[in-house]
Amino acid sequence: MKQRSVFLTAAVVGLALGAAPAAAQLPYTGEGPILVAPGELTWADAPAVAPGAKIAVIEGPLNKAVPFTFRLRLPANAKIAPHTHPAYERVTVLSGTFYFTSGDTYDPAKTRALGPGSVAIMPAGTPMFGYTKEETVIQLHGIGPWGLIYLNPADDPRRK
Predict the structure, then answer these.
(1) For labeling, which of 24, 40, 96, 135 is most exposed (least CB within 10 Å)?
(2) pLDDT tens digits, 37-79
(3) Are the beta carbons of 50 and 79 closer than 8 angstroms?
């Protein structure tokens, strides 16, 4: 198995949640098998998700019509305001608890507590929101392109 490192371009980085690592492992692009242990993931800031959130892209790129897989590490007390995605999104909780639901108005009382092993599947364009009480790691996968569009642009954490 080849190990490759590259500098991510600004275009890919911009679509991939505003993450801006200096260098990262090249995401898997379908060329042969890949085996990755958690300690081998390259984490970068994900300012479009929440302050302190981190992203590790495993398969992509996120801005193309190809399969994607990535992980988000959400800090305790992260809030993800109502938003949509242009692609189907399949979310698996790996650790912690993700309080999550569909809807276009942020209301924590309407969320469902999803613990490790829980899955949520959201069709493209479905409004959704969530939050954490503890550090939580989720894995997302689908067919891109992937993106994050806040229903209220003022809720985008990159604007704060």
Answers:
(1) 40
(2) 999 999 999 999 999 999 999 998 999 999 999 999 999 999 9
(3) yes
- Whole-model pTM: value is 0.82
Closest of 108, 10, 105 to residue 61, by C-alpha = 10
Tokens 């399949």 sit at which residue? 90
Query: Are 136 and 152 contacting, i.e. CB atoms less than 8 angstroms apart?
Result: no
Q: How far apart are CA 79 and CA 1, in angstroms?
A: 38
Sheet architecture: strand order including 128-132: 112-114, 98-102, 128-132, 79-84, 149-150
Question: Phi and psi at residue 110, in whole multiples of 5°?
Answer: -90, -5
d(CA 71, CA 140): 6
CA torsion angle 114 15 70 143 (round to 10) = 90
Domain ranges of the chain: 5-30+37-159
At the second CATH level, the architecture of 5-30+37-159 is: Sandwich (2.60)
